[in-house]
Amino acid sequence: MKPIWLFDLDNTLHDASHAVFGRLNGSMTDYIEQHLGVSRPEADALRLHYWRRYGATLLGLERHHGIRAAHFLAQTHTLPGLEADLRMRPADRAALQRLPGRKFLLTNAPAEYAKRVLTALDLASCFEGVIAIEDMRVFGELRPKPDVRSLRVILARLRLPAHRCVLVEDTLANLKSARRLQLRTVWMQRYLRHNPHGPEAGIPLHGRPRWVCARIRALRSLHAWP
Questions:
Q1: For the purposes of burial, counting CB atoms within 10 Å of the CB of 219, is it exposed (0-12), middle (13-18) or buried (19 or more)?
Q2: Closest CA to 148 of 164, 130, 167
Q3: What does residue 169 show for φ and ψ, rounded to 5 degrees?
Q4: Which residues pair with 105 in a beta bridge?
Q5: Which long-range contacts (CB under 8 A, 24 or more apart) does 166-169 make?
Q6: C-alpha triplet 142, 166, 122: angle, nearest 5°
Q7: For 196-223, how does the pLDDT look when each residue is reduced to its tens digit (9 = 90+)?
Q8: CA distance 226 to 222
Q9: Cα atoms in the Cβ-side hemisphere of radius 13 Å centred on 27
Q10: pLDDT tens digits, one per residue of 100-109
Q11: Average of pLDDT values for 152-163?
Q12: Backbone dihedral angles phi then psi of residue 185, each to the nearest 5 degrees
């Protein structure tokens, strides 16, 4: 039986470390500085603090400052000229297009941004659906990755059996949560070595935590899976 693939977006399908993450971080810091009335160093520190604590800066802003999610996402992910900053290896694109099985995008990014990136990378037709941060609410509260409850709700909503699902992701915390629900997990490492922005920045990449089923550096490696 073919796997059901759940793919992260940034630094999994494309090299977000090249330029996109830096632009997003700057845009979020701008937003916090403007809407909370703090200095830029304070805004940058708050962005990073909430991201590390909750897995998404937005979650902290929504909980502690009453920031509306839709407004924050629209303002911070506009990114004029984004398409010129995107980088993806042609071999990875071809491998994804040939990969058998149902495929969904599972990202903490907003839907409009995710669809824009997929379209620019010529990947939109690969995916049956896009599960974005707006879809990750449990009892009305925002619960982005790595929240286990949100993932359980998403699987139930889409009627996806966990044991058939494979999460391909660059962030270890998200893989750990998925493994708790018996998904198989693949750690995409291609863009981590030179990534100064993510939670895996600076960590050794040669080991494999027990909740990671496989490590890859190219999407063509997924074709070896049953």
A1: buried
A2: 167
A3: -160, 150
A4: 7, 130
A5: 166/3, 166/4, 166/5, 166/6, 166/222, 166/225, 167/6, 167/8, 167/106, 168/5, 168/6, 168/7, 168/8, 168/12, 168/216, 168/219, 168/222, 169/7, 169/8, 169/12
A6: 80
A7: 555 555 566 677 899 999 999 999 999 9
A8: 9
A9: 18
A10: 999 999 999 9
A11: 97
A12: -130, 135
What integer pLDDT is reported at residue 14 of this predicted model? 96
Proportion of the chain above pLDDT 90, given as a percent: 84
3-state secondary structure string, the chain? CCCEEEECCECCCECCCCCHHHHHHHHHHHHHHHHHCCCHHHHHHHHHHHHHHHCCHHHHHHHHHCCCHHHHHHHHCCCCCHHHHCCCCHHHHHHHHHCCCCEEEECCCCHHHHHHHHHHCCCHHHCCEEECHHHCEECCEECCCCCHHHHHHHHHHHCCCHHHEEEEECCHHHHHHHHHCCCEEEEECCCCCCCCCCCCCCCCCCCCCCCCCEEECCHHHHHHCC
Render pLDDT for 51-84 as a digit per residue (tens, 0 to 9).
888 888 999 999 999 999 999 999 999 999 999 9
Q: Residue 102 and residue 99: Cα distance in Å, rounded?
A: 9
Say yes or no to pLDDT of 41 above 70. yes
Q: What is the pLDDT of residue 188?
A: 94
